[in-house]
Write a structure and sequence with these properties.
Chain lengths: ~425, ~425
């Protein structure tokens, strides 16, 4: 497919943009150029799409199922009983609903961890997004379970080739308190052998830290380092209860932090110290977490949440400024996963969006990045392109009606 | 005008709704009923609209003009110089842009304070919203200025009758540090005489408290009470640095708190203690503040911000639940201003909206209120009705193109 976007605002100027295959081929004057699809870029701006650094996409089926509850009640009486009932088809339909929501809100990449890996992979494949997918690896120190998980991940690693290169297979050891040391060591080895990323939850609650110290005499990041786990291929979600020394350790090893402010606030988990982490040398990307604890997958609202929470928390109005929030919601996670997306440049992947400069939330238009971070919502996003293909135009995603119908059926299936 | 909404979801059931004049006349079976406009309510839900408890609407012209700056630099080098250049026509066009944004995001009432009262009043009148409008009353202890402000407010009080009853005139003494005691006393008297509300900023910064103690030997709420200012007609924005005793004092007098979480976070002003204020007996409504410090006027995102910030701040996942946030963003401020809006009932004002239950963010649909608070954005809102008139249908507001064009012109006028 080839796309020609004519007279679109980009980087303070007006340009034509030519997309062919999966790449942006030219930015500038394309007057002689033809393409299969020509988009009118007037009164629109071209921007990179959002990259959602941490989510459990399929949990869209659980949106607003249980809220405002004490953590243990929430998990024990609501989330886990519901999760025990799902089958791969539910994950597929939940993930499709999530993909639809992400497309509609300008996200083309997400970093995921969930059950029934193929369910999510099929959803990504069909909806046209890009994703790094991990199966939840939990063994609870049980040898048989560990063996089963290792076998499953080996199998999924082979089966990854059934999908296009928009899908990145990675390992997903859930957390230090749900995965044995032996399995964590296996993840490190298998990842090193095959050049894989590892997606893990780290230091999300105070209890995780206390328990880790009691069990290992070390704080979570120290423990992971002691078993050789930490490296540039580790993407760690939450990172709330890190000491400065742990941030420095993670930075030294090149491990990445995935910051989920809305989920952390909603679950009263605590606060990831963005400014301190960056000072310590950590790279940070922003994610929404799953719909059970957000309850949306909207990266636009998430980067605003991150910027405002950081200013509130530090008492410093200059902390986590719009440009930094924008980077953490777009380019940062692309870099983690070695993708040339999250930026608009010749040769980069054609993962981009057109925003409507006539949308009231982008008017008067003094500063587009500040508008995108602090004012825009999904209604500003007109067109979304991923891998050189148009996924949404005029805010319509082909096939969305069927995805919604399947999504609404969850209400009946999981009626209390 | 009369409107018949057929087969709409409301309160867990499906009903017809008949609107005539400015009121909801019937909810139930309206099969024999005719109306000038018939709306298909299928796959839609009827909800009360948002009521924005504190804003400076016209400041939409300043959206994303200056962000992420130290407070004094922001005010001194950016906000105030720009404000010194505006004329009534700018306020009119800025407020129209704000009204458009509010309609698009489901708000039909806002509580305002700004310069050029008539500019905002004209915008409200024309766009069809409802608003309580105050002129900024500042005298800096200057006798001549105070006299001028008093005269202006007396004049505006008379001129309020030039507008429909959708516009409520109120007094707007800016804050205790910008208005003399004498003028504050005048506001109290004039308001009592004419049954007016008073809109003021209270305890927004730590400096306000320190200065008040130094000058009066009292904390801000105590000082206001000592001069007889506090009463059920006082709506106080921010209320961040209140001691428990001040909350109890405000509650005892019936004064209301207007909570603006996004602005407070963005300006690192501190945190209004919602739970404590409610425990102390205060009534609280949520507002966006102006576009200079938010940067949008979206009550949907504001109630989510309030709910999440409260859970984060208190460490309690059950704090400020969805139902409370929804009430604080809809009905609460209507009650403050003695409006029978912010609820759906026979006889109530027809200020309501239709949300699209097929929007991906409201699917599966386990809990509509939780979805509205935690997941929805403006794209879910299809139709907005205020005072029995349709202001938006299929997300289109008649005349919006001209408002946008005028709004975009601000970028040129205020180019740096």
């Amino acid at each position: 497919m080839s796309i020609l976007i004519k007279q679109v605002a980009w980087n303070g100027t007006t340009v034509d943009v030519h997309i062919s295959g999966s790449q942006i081929k030219k930015i500038g004057d394309c007057s002689g150029q033809t393409a299969e699809v020509v988009l009118d870029g007037r009164n629109k701006a071209l921007l990179p799409t959002f990259h959602n650094a941490h989510t459990h996409a399929a949990m869209a089926y659980m949106r607003s199922y249980a809220d405002d509850l004490e953590l243990f009640t929430w998990l024990n009486d609501h989330v886990w009983p519901l999760e025990s009932k799902i089958i791969e088809e539910d994950v597929y339909n939940g993930a499709r609903l999530a993909c639809l929501e992400m497309i509609k809100s300008g996200t083309t990449f997400f970093n995921d961890m969930y059950w029934f890996w193929h369910g999510t992979a099929r959803a990504v494949e069909e909806t046209g997004l890009r994703a790094a997918l991990s199966a939840v690896f939990i063994d609870f120190d049980d040898h048989a379970k560990a063996k089963e998980q290792v076998e499953q991940n080996k199998r999924l690693f082979e089966e990854r080739t059934h999908y296009s290169n928009r899908i990145i297979f990675q390992l997903g050891p859930h957390a230090i308190y749900t995965v044995s040391e032996k399995s964590l060591r296996w993840c490190t080895e298998f990842a090193a052998e095959h050049g894989l990323m590892i997606h893990i939850h780290l230091s999300e609650t105070g209890k995780e830290v206390t328990d880790c110290i009691a069990k290992h005499g070390l704080r979570p990041a120290e423990y992971l380092d002691s078993i050789g786990f930490l490296g540039p291929n580790v993407a760690a979600a939450h990172c709330i209860w890190l000491e400065k020394s742990e941030m420095e350790l993670l930075a030294k090893r090149g491990a990445k932090a995935l910051h989920c402010p809305s989920s952390n606030m909603k679950l009263a988990s605590g606060k990831f110290r963005f400014t301190d982490a960056v000072s310590a040398g950590m790279q940070v990307a922003i994610g929404t977490d799953g719909s059970a604890s957000n309850n949306c997958l909207d990266m636009g609202s998430e980067i605003k949440m991150a910027a405002l929470l950081e200013k509130h928390f530090t008492g410093n109005t200059t902390a986590l400024n719009a440009q930094t929030a924008w980077h953490a919601g777009t380019r940062a996670c692309a870099e983690f996963y070695s993708l040339d997306s999250g930026r608009i440049a010749e040769g980069a992947l054609a993962d981009c969006m057109l925003v409507d400069l006539n949308n009231e939330r982008l008017v008067p238009g003094h500063n587009l990045v500040a508008d995108m971070v602090y004012s825009a919502d999904s209604s500003c996003i007109d067109t979304v392109i991923c891998d050189g293909k148009i996924l949404m135009q005029n805010r319509h995603v082909p096939g969305e009606e069927e995805i919604i119908a399947k999504g609404r059926a969850f209400k009946e299936k999981f009626r209390r």
